[in-house]
Design goal:
This protein is α/β, with parallel strands linked by helices. About 30% of the residues lie in helices and about 15% in strands. Strands 4-3-2-5-6 form a 5-stranded parallel sheet, sandwiched between helices. A two-stranded parallel sheet has the order 1-9.
Length: about 200
């Protein structure tokens, strides 16, 4: 079995819905925000490692007229209250047909976050739950890690270069804090670990 070494990032960026918090489609109510299992612990680990962290989120409900930006900001503030602090937030308010550069899988939010953090994309990792997240990371030149949920399509899992079963395993891959059992982290079918 081959082993691939991943260089530890200087910052870890996260998708919001389905990655850090339970996905409530077009959520306008901060009281519906519930952290995903392991999210608080994963973020604590990132901060303990001295890394910066941020959130990148598509919010097409704004473009669709289902949400107002203040509602999205209120939900984000609740996420920050439960799981923060975050060094930055990037929100794409556009719809799929708008042709913007920020809506994942386009790289715009990843690149903007890198500029704001003063880092090269190669120094940044982005963790998300769908193919658009890891595609945005790849398009920007960052490391993407897919943490699938029941809504993640099989073809997205198959196409992702780095896949982890949960946030803790994704950080294991990125930060290299030790080995996981066989199958815990997979890169194109191979068990993987990172290095410090």
């Amino acid at each position: 079995m081959s082993r691939h070494v991943i260089d530890p990032p200087q910052a870890v960026l996260f998708d919001r819905d389905g990655t850090l918090v339970v996905d409530v489609p077009y959520n306008a109510d901060p009281q519906l925000v519930r952290p995903m299992p392991g999210a608080a612990e994963a973020l604590d680990a990132v901060r303990r490692a001295g890394l910066r962290c941020g959130v990148l989120t598509n919010q097409s409900g704004i473009a669709r007229g289902l949400l107002q930006r203040p509602q999205v900001d209120a939900v984000n503030a609740r996420v920050e209250e439960l799981l923060g602090p975050f060094d930055l937030w990037e929100v794409c308010p556009h719809g799929p047909a708008d042709g913007c550069e920020c809506r994942k899988p386009a790289p715009g939010m990843v690149l903007s976050a890198c500029r704001r953090l003063g880092l090269q994309p190669s120094e940044v990792a982005f963790i998300g739950d769908i193919g658009a997240d890891v595609e945005a990371a790849a398009a920007a030149g960052a490391t993407g890690v897919l943490v699938p949920t029941p809504v993640t399509r099989a073809e997205e899992v198959n196409a992702a270069e780095l896949v982890a079963p949960d946030l803790a395993a994704a950080l294991e891959l990125l930060l290299g804090t030790g080995w996981l059992p066989d199958g815990g982290l997979v890169r194109n079918g191979d068990v993987v670990r990172g290095s410090l």
